[in-house]
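A.,

Following up on our hallway conversation. Structure tokens first:
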């Protein structure tokens, strides 16, 4: 049972960090394959809480080798501050491997992200401001800087010069900012070269050899299906492919190697930043979900937009990712509601629509069609088996499973490592 992909089935923040950490003890490698430090993954181990942004959540499991794949964008300053923070708390990070082909988020990419958002005004995406989009844009435009470029000063200088050429025109003439000097950027980037060297590896080779040797490899997605650049709610998306196929390109493994694709699914829905969100609540229920679920961004500290569970989205996630399992998280947050509405379909211009519309205009007009399920009031945080859950909570889970198109194999009933009900083993 060697290769698993674990990814967000909604708009991110589903609890991927906790799910990865839970499996960390039984896997040999945990690999980030896309995104960068726009992610914020929370892991709670005992009374210790960790917030990871760039590092794979498996870094907290001693036997596991964490890998940053070629598809990730790496901000070296963030990387080292995250590593130092973990080292200070006694976490051994020496096994980390970073692909030499991963792209580097340079200071000018961060500047361009912030300036672009400011100029978009009310049409802004609400990015995390970490330089993610501009770094991927440079990659696609073939003016990106890769980790391996840090080891040849002359090539690095030429590449930074090429990347800055057009950008400085824009910065000075359109955005009214000062030009950025090549020399200064190169100097800063070179300060990371030797510190990075022990981690840099041909991660594609390492991972494929590991798979040949029957090692267990877990690919950990950042963000979520609806934030995917191809399959998400474009343009209100991130600039990479969190969906399952991204694991193949972002880590360099073939699709035939992947055995299981696990979608992390929150028992309700949240979203950060701009963009459509059919089940969004603007009332006390939305406020209560935010308060009880502690729905505040790990990366930017922004309040998350909250709403009821949307089965149309879950079905879509099953389809575009080929999900084999769901991990349903935060069921405990719903304790105390007398009734819980679940969106089963949309109404778009008077028509009932069962599947996510491909047209952006339709999706912007989609109104949720709700079915209401009975709630429960018993504390479920100590539940260890499905049978321990109150009947109405069991029925809620079963209903979500029937609507979503893949088995719910685990249920989160609290943020801690042990607050999980396992139904089917992911390593089966
Ligand atoms: P990620 O980005 O997908 O890793 O998710 P985040 O860490 O951004 O947000 C999920 C939040 O929910 C974190 O604060 C987790 O500690 C917390 N969490 C995860 N699973 C559960 C659960 O089953 N119940 C509760 N109450 N909290 C959970
Ligand atoms: P994790 O891994 C939730 C959102 C931003 C914005 C859009 C584009 O913790 O689930 P970007 O900076 O990526 O260009 O921003 O994507 N976004 C996330 N929302 N969770 C995340 O990561 C996110 N990473 C980016 O809020 O709307
Ligand atoms: Mg998060």
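Then the amino acids I'd put at each of the 428 positions:
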């Amino acid at each position: 049972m060697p290769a698993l992909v674990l990814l967000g089935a909604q708009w991110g923040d589903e609890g991927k960090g906790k799910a990865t950490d839970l499996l960390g003890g039984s896997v040999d490698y945990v690999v980030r394959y896309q995104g960068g430090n726009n992610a914020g993954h929370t892991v709670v181990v005992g009374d210790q809480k960790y917030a990871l942004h760039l590092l794979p959540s498996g870094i907290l499991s001693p036997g596991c080798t964490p890998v940053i794949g070629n598809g990730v964008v790496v901000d070296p300053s963030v990387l080292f501050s995250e590593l130092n923070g973990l080292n200070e708390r006694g976490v051994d990070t020496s096994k980390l491997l970073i692909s030499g082909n991963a792209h580097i988020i340079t200071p000018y990419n961060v500047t361009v992200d912030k300036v672009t958002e400011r100029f978009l005004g009310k049409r802004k995406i609400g990015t995390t401001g970490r330089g993610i989009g501009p770094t991927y844009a440079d990659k696609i435009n073939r003016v990106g800087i890769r980790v391996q470029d840090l080891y040849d000063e002359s090539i690095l200088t030429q590449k930074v010069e090429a990347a800055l050429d057009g950008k400085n025109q824009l910065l000075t003439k359109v955005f009214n900012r000062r030009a950025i000097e090549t020399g200064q950027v190169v100097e800063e980037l070179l300060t990371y070269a030797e510190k990075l060297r022990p981690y840099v590896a041909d991660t594609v080779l390492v991972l494929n050899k590991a798979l040949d040797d029957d090692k267990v490899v877990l690919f950990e997605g950042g963000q979520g299906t609806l934030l995917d650049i191809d399959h998400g709610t474009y343009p209100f998306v991130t600039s990479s492919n969190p969906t399952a196929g991204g694991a193949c390109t972002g880590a360099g493994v073939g699709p035939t190697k992947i055995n299981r694709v696990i979608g992390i699914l929150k028992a309700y829905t949240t979203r950060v930043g701009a963009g459509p969100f059919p089940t969004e609540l603007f009332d006390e229920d939305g406020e209560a979900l935010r308060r009880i679920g502690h729905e505040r961004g790990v990366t930017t500290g922004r309040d998350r937009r909250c709403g009821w569970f949307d089965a149309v989205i879950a079905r879509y996630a099953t389809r575009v990712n080929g999900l084999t399992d769901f991990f349903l998280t935060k069921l405990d947050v719903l304790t105390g509601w007398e009734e819980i509405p679940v969106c089963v379909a949309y109404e778009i211009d008077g028509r009932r629509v069962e599947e996510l519309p491909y047209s952006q205009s339709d999706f912007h007009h989609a109104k949720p069609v709700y079915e209401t399920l009975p709630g429960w009031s018993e504390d479920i945080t100590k539940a260890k088996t499905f049978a321990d859950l109150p009947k109405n909570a069991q029925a809620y889970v079963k209903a979500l499973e029937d609507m979503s198109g893949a088995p719910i194999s685990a249920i989160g009933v609290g943020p801690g490592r042990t607050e999980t009900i396992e139904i089917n083993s992911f390593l089966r």
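The chain has two domains: 3-90+202-422, 103-197. Curious whether your intuition agrees with the design.

B.
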